[in-house]
Structure formats: structure tokens, C-alpha cells
Design a protein that fits this description.
By secondary structure, this protein is an all-alpha fold. It is built from seven helices and no strands. Helix 2 crosses helix 3, helix 2 packs across helix 6 and helix 5 crosses helix 6. The radius of gyration is 14 Å and the shape is globular.
């Protein structure tokens, strides 16, 4: 596939039900596997990119996650809406705010050019 920076591609990969649900399932797997955020990032990266995050990427990922957590703690109803997207039910044992935040982080990683074209 050719590299593209058109807004239409990002619109699809960040909003399409299948992509959102895939991101939620990645987040669910990571949350259920471990409580360590760095290991969670490693799990998501390994699945999508076949590598661990680079050291310079980790602070950006943590800052993004912190921002998502803060936003969803302020609006838990929005977190609940996000994790309901798709046909598969959200894991009932996971905190909706945390799952929503990790879903957005997984979505961002899923939307990387490196993920989409490699």
C-alpha cells in the first residue's frame, strides 16, 4: 500500500466501528495481561508492529495515556459510550475509564503509518 497523509484515511482508521472495536480488544488483552503500563505498551506494540516501543516513544505514549485518563475521569459517560462500540461486549471486569483510555491509545498506535503500511 502506498503511504498517504490524507485526512480521509485517519478518519476511517480512527472512527470506523471495526477499527475502534479492534483497538478496544487490543486494550482489553493488555489490561487483562498485566497491571504494568510498560508491559501493556509492549504487548500492544508487539501485536501491531512486531517490536517494543522505542525509549523516545515511551514518554509520548505515557503522556497520551495520562491525557486520555484525565479526560475520561472527567466524563465517565463518554468512556462508557466508547467501550460500547462494536458487536463484542466490553469486558465487565475492567474499569470503563481505564479501558476507554487504553482503547484510544491502542487506536493511536493502530493509526500509525508504520502500523498501516508495514
Amino acid at each position: 500500500r502506498e503511504r498517504t497523509n490524507t485526512p480521509l484515511q485517519a478518519f476511517v482508521t480512527m472512527n470506523d466501528v471495526q477499527f475502534v472495536e479492534a483497538a478496544r480488544q487490543l486494550a482489553t488483552s493488555a489490561l487483562q495481561a498485566t497491571a504494568d503500563p510498560d508491559v501493556r505498551l509492549d504487548l500492544i506494540y508487539q501485536r501491531l508492529l512486531a517490536r517494543a516501543p522505542r525509549e523516545e516513544e515511551r514518554p509520548v505514549l505515557h503522556a497520551s495515556l495520562d491525557g486520555f485518563l484525565e479526560a475520561y475521569r472527567a466524563a465517565p459517560d463518554e468512556a462508557a459510550k466508547l467501550i460500547e462500540v462494536g458487536d463484542s461486549p466490553a469486558a465487565p471486569d475492567l474499569d470503563a475509564v481505564e479501558l476507554a483510555a487504553w482503547t484510544l491509545l491502542a487506536s493511536n498506535i493502530l493509526n500509525l503509518d508504520e502500523t498501516l503500511t508495514k
